[in-house]
Design brief:
Elements: H1 2-18, E1 27-30, H2 36-45, E2 49-53, E3 63-66, E4 79-85, H3 94-104, E5 105-116, H4 121-138, H5 146-155, E6 158-166, E7 178-185, H6 189-212
Parallel strand pairs: 1-2, 1-4, 2-3, 4-5
Antiparallel strand pairs: 5-7, 6-7
Helix pairs in contact: 1-2
Length: 222
């Protein structure tokens, strides 16, 4: 029964993910776990779906490679979509993972992210228990509220396409507030600031040249 619940839950998530993608889209499932989301998604999309993880070989029969937790073992611009299903809170460097997502996504590619958002005392207790279970395997977990994830995505150079809150009862064994994000590569806040500053400097230079074109420049008095 436990296995059946896992398979059923994976199928529901695969349907939800497939609604955001085009048929035939190639997908990389980062931290694929048991592999059932990738397995179902391959059948639904009739496409190439590949799984990577730091753990054991998945139970589902999928294309799989072991992952060192830092660099995805796949070439640049290989996939139309990347899945991060409750993975980022396990990452010891979420920015590094998102940089790798940007690297392997094709132009106009999407990243689909599921994350826990422990906002109240009950959520924090559930996430504390989850951390105790996993920290010896993947290191300590870092949970964030939705605003915290938005900031991480922006800093890493992603724009949010879709964001919505999910029911805590989607997984009865882990009843915590959670969110679903669809993000795409874009400009980070830092990049936008640099561009705006550069544009401002260009504007100032053009203005000064136009204002003083043909006019003598006064010499400093000696």
């Amino acid at each position: 029964m436990r296995r059946r619940r896992k398979v059923g839950r994976a199928y529901d998530m695969a349907l939800e993910i497939a609604n955001r993608l085009s048929p035939g889209a190639s997908v990389l499932d980062v931290g694929c776990g048991n592999g059932f989301i990738a397995y179902h998604l391959k059948g639904i999309l009739n496409s190439y779906v590949f799984g990577i993880d730091v753990g054991d070989i998945p139970a589902a029969p999928i294309e799989y490679l072991s992952y060192d937790g830092r660099h995805f073992p796949v070439p640049d611009q290989t996939f139309d979509a990347v899945l991060l299903c409750y993975v980022l809170h396990h990452a010891q460097d979420a920015r590094l993972v998102l940089d790798e997502v940007r690297r392997v996504l094709r132009d106009d590619g999407l990243a689909i992210v599921y994350e826990d958002n422990p906002g109240d005392r009950w959520d924090r207790i559930v996430c504390w228990s989850h951390n105790k279970q996993w920290q010896r395997r993947t290191g300590p977990c870092t949970f964030r509220l939705r605003a915290g994830w938005r900031k991480i995505f922006d800093t890493a150079g992603f724009e949010i396409v879709t964001e919505r809150k999910l029911s805590r009862w989607r997984n009865i064994a882990h009843p915590v507030s959670r969110s679903f994000f669809v993000i795409k590569p874009g400009q980070s806040t830092a990049q936008r600031r640099v561009e705006l500053l550069s544009n401002a400097r260009t504007f100032d230079s053009d203005f000064v040249r136009a204002a003083f074109r043909g006019r003598p420049v006064a010499k400093n008095p000696t």
